Amino acid sequence: MSKHALVIDDSNTMRQMVTFTLQDAGYTVVEADNGQTALDQAKAKAFDLIITDLNMPVMDGITFIQQARKDSLSRHAPILMLTTENAPERKQAGKAAGATGWIVKPFEPATLLGAVGKVVR
Amino acid sequence: MTDEISEHQARVVDSLTDGNQFLTFTLHQEEYGIEILKVQEIKGFSRLTPIPNAPHYVKGVLNLRGTVVPIIDLRSRFSMAEKEQDQFTVIIVVNVGSKVVGLLVDTVSDVLQIPEEDICDTPELAGSVDTSYVSGMGKVKDRLVMLLDIGKLIGVEELEIVEEIAA
Amino acid sequence: MSLELEEFLLGFFEETDEQLGQIEEGLLLLEKSYEDPDLLNTIFRAAHTIKGNSGMLGLPEIANFTHRVEELLDNMRDGAVSPSGENVDLLLRSTDCLRDLVNCAKQGLSCETEESTLLADQLQSALAVSEEGPPQTDSAQEMPRYEIRFTPYKSLVRRGVDPLLLIESLPQVGSILSLEMQTDSVPDLSEFDTQKCYLAWCVELETREPVQSIEDIFEFVDDDGQVEITRLNPHQISDPLPAEPSVEQATPDISNEPSPKAPGNQESSQPTVRKPAPARSGSVEDSNESIRVSLKKVEHLINTVGELVIANSVLNQTIGATGAADQLPLIEAMALVDTTTRDLQEQVMAVRLLPMSTVFRRLPRLVRDLASELNREVDLQICGEDTEVDKQVIEEIQDPLVHLVRNALDHGLEPAEERLAAGKSAQGVLRISAFHDGGSVAIEIKDDGRGLDTERIKAKAIERGLIRADEPLTDRQIHALIFHAGFSTAAQVTKVSGRGVGMDVVRKNIENLSGVVELDSTLGKGCTLTIKLPLTMAILDGLTVGLAGEIYIIPLLSVVESIRLDSRQVQTVAGKKEVILVRNEPLPLVRLHQRFGVTPASSDPCEGLVIILEHQNNRVGLLVDELHGQQQVVMKSVEKNYQKVEGVGGATILGDGRVAFILDVAGLTRGQ
Which of A52, C234, C301, C473 is buried deepest, with most CB atoms within 10 A? Predict the structure, then answer.
């Protein structure tokens, strides 16, 4: 019974990196490239893990986290956000919105899995 | 009339589905064919630069859009009487292995679809062509087309062996 | 595999090759100058980058192996392990192994070999030795203990962080000696706020891992909880009196292990963290701005420019033929196109130019290994690395160069004792330099070793029937005999240089590049080998001559002069060989029409034109019909679609679209 993850990033490359890594670790991954489609997904299913970028078109990551936490089947899911080095206020905003953890870009797969391990059983 | 058209249509349909297509050409009024897949293009004659100390059937090289391509006179290769080159002379440019080579022929005819069952082994003919270059005889209506093995003809292996010895 | 991943991998392989080169260079320098912190940092960074990238791209074996290398380098940086010869040697071998692993990855094979496992263990052992180093409490046997107090806040739970999960992660870092959960704050059920966490934990953990590892576990707590990590004295029992000033709070910005690309992000780190932050400022070796371009694109570009050169030539000829060439505006316009085309051509050829350093960078390592194997002491001097040469030339010159260096070390330089006995310094000098010389690039390999023994070579050559005993030969000519196949005067054919067949293959390879090899040697003093190569393979300046109605091109580089003979200058020697006298110097006459089997305009040398050619200090007079002029030509291959033709080095397309052959001067002057 594999775990389900939702990966959200408008960069194909980044999204694929994360997806590959999670798939290697046994996850079934659903991808989305903006906050809105992601939210639709989150409302339809209780994911075991959500990994999201913050800068996205249509609906940005912070808004997604807020909405997902408010009203979706995945509102209790651990959410990891992908942050960049020089944006500490984004991280704070993300936390305030309800993000469980964060990973700084760019990162090694091991780091990603390490972070995942801290928030998912 | 309708018969001809439908026969033509049938041929077209055939040619689209089968791989046995040959470009036919004439040498000394005899018909020959080579696999269409190996043919790169057909060119008119242009001035050749003779290659020093080359075999008699290698008539020289020409410039094909910036590439130097050797030209083999098939009449000479098959020890037939040679013909003067003029503006009607045709060169079939073929691509064999990694080499591009031009074949000097009399005229180029059709692209023919010759199904497997119409190709038979070459009998021991006292013909003008060395049968080692012939891959089979194709029967088209009431004609016989001699199908040539391009690789052997150009002596791709042959050339490579020569290179090794010279090295 | 997705297309993007493939692209990433290609970029990774290229980058990793560079990094490996940097590591090797750095290690070799390290041997000479210990304790240079910058050097160690550079080497460490390169290894770190490889580790990060390989990890990111799904090459865990490479990442793991590199991690071991990185660990040892890290120890060296801290001064915990010394960069001793042994350790550097181990690292060099590991670098080699890493290269092999990367090559396996390139071919899609598994990236783990017996050697890599062996080396990984050795690297690990090299580490363990250093564990005595770091300041611990007196009994080095005792493992450090920490007390961890963790109190989550309400906000933590709201974020979905599971405190239990964090506690459960602690065994990954060390052994839990005691665990206590504090339930004092838990209220009655009626007052229970489900979104709040009323629990706290106190854990005693024993671990050799650095504090960072513990802090890592609580990374996501941030300021939504309290985390206190205290180092305990060996005799302490859960008393939060710090043994070292290491009261830790999970500070907001300690993030993951520095990822390869993160610019300096360690400012907020605590004083106790031992590792100096690898401050990744943008100070990477090569700060030139550049972009990667596929070789195919460059070749295509060069071909197209070549076509432009020809088209320009056609244009000139066509206009010339119409007689419209007299009109001034037309002449000016054509001149402009001509200059611009030449300019473009130069620039495009320059794109393919690479510095010789790409070839030279292998040498220090090679020389070091060989010198130690052959027991020679060598001072390697390299200069002219910036000299730029065509990429193709660089590729083809690598092997011959390596062989010549091997030869110089094996046969040229003597062992220390022999040198001292001869009154030389114990250390031999091997100087390799590259420089531009006219239209060519020259590579010089100079050693101050034994030099060539003219007498011995002569004797050997006579023995092998290469020359006659009474043949009058200059020393230079005798020396040149070593380039003959099967020639080797080495007392023992060592496994390093291989058989005598080496030198003739080297010369052949260089000649295939239209280059020459020259030797200059003095017995007892040393030997200088000079390789001269054309700057570029594709375009050359040629003399256009006519013979039997066809046009041939002679590379201008090999042309000395062209002369018309009068009958007194032509003589026949021994009834067969024809010789011409040029300023009283006899030169062999080569009748091109005979070589090519064509009928010349006239077979009388005095009616034709003689071009004096020079190749490797050999001069001949080449008889042709007439001289047409001089032009720049784009070299095309004849072998590509046909085969090698004797006397012909290549072909070109003339202005009128015809093919003209370029003569092979080496081939024509040989055997004369």
Answer: A52
Residues of chain A found within 8 Å of residue C63, distances taken between Cβ atoms: 108, 110
Average pLDDT by stretches of 10, chain C with 672 residues: 67 85 89 73 84 79 88 82 83 91 85 81 73 45 82 83 87 85 82 81 87 87 86 61 32 35 34 32 46 77 80 78 76 86 82 84 86 87 85 80 86 86 89 81 90 85 79 80 67 46 74 80 90 73 92 91 90 84 90 92 90 86 92 80 85 85 87 61
**Residue corresponding to tokens 């440019």:** B93
Distance CA C215, CA C254 (A): 8
Nearest to A72 by CA among A106, A102, A103, A38: A38
pLDDT at residue B2 greater than cutoff 60 = no
Residue A65, helix vs strand vs coil = helix
Higher pLDDT among residues B60 and C196, named by residue: B60
Has residue B128 got a pLDDT over 70? no
Q: What is the pLDDT of residues A60-86, one digit of tens each?
A: 888 899 999 988 888 889 999 988 766
Length of chain A: 121
CA–CA gap between residue C175 and residue C192 (Å, rounded): 34
From the list C2, C56, C217, which residue is nearest A109 (CB)?
C56
DSSP 8-state class, residue C514: T
Specify the pairing of strand B143-148 against strand B30-35: parallel
Distance CA A116, CA A110 (A): 10
| Preceding peptide of C271 cis, ω within 30° | no
Chain C: closest CA distance from residue A115 (Å): 9
Across chain C, how many H-helices and E-strands are there?
19, 23
Residue C244 DSSP class? S
Which residues on C lie below 8 Å from B67 (Cβ)? Answer: 636, 640-641
Chains A and B touch (3+ CB pairs under 8 A): no
Q: How far apart are CA C148 and CA C224, in angstroms?
A: 16
| ipTM for the whole complex | 0.85
Label the pairing between strands C659-663 and C550-555.
Answer: parallel
- In chain C, the residue whose alpha carbon lies closest to the alpha carbon of B166 is C644
Q: Identify the pLDDT of residue C594.
A: 92
What is the count of residue pairs from B and C with beta carbons less than 8 Å apart? 74
Query: A19 or C656, which is more confident?
Result: A19
What single letter denotes the amino acid at residue C321?
A
Compare CB distances from C160 to A79, A106, A108 and report the shortest one's residue: A79
The answer to whether C532 and C440 have CB atoms below 8 angstroms apart is: yes
> Which residues of C fall below an 8 Å CB-CB distance to A?
2, 4-5, 8, 52, 55-56, 58, 63, 155, 158-162, 165-166, 169, 216-217, 219-220, 222, 224, 252-253, 255-257, 259-263, 265
Q: Cβ contact (<8 Å) for B68 and C307? A: no
Mean pLDDT of chain A: 87
Q: Work out the minimum CA distance from B25 to partner chain C, whole angstroms.
A: 23
Which of C159, C217, C262 lies closest to A100 in CB terms? C159
CB pair distance less than 8 Å for A17 and C265: no
Instruction: Calculate mean pLDDT across residues B139-153.
Output: 86
Rounded to whole angstroms, how far apart are CA atoms C299 and C293?
11
Count of all residues that appear for chain C in the document:
672
- State pLDDT tens for residues B61-88: 998 877 899 999 999 888 888 888 777 7
Q: Cα-flanking dihedrals φ and ψ of residue C247, to 5°?
A: -75, 120
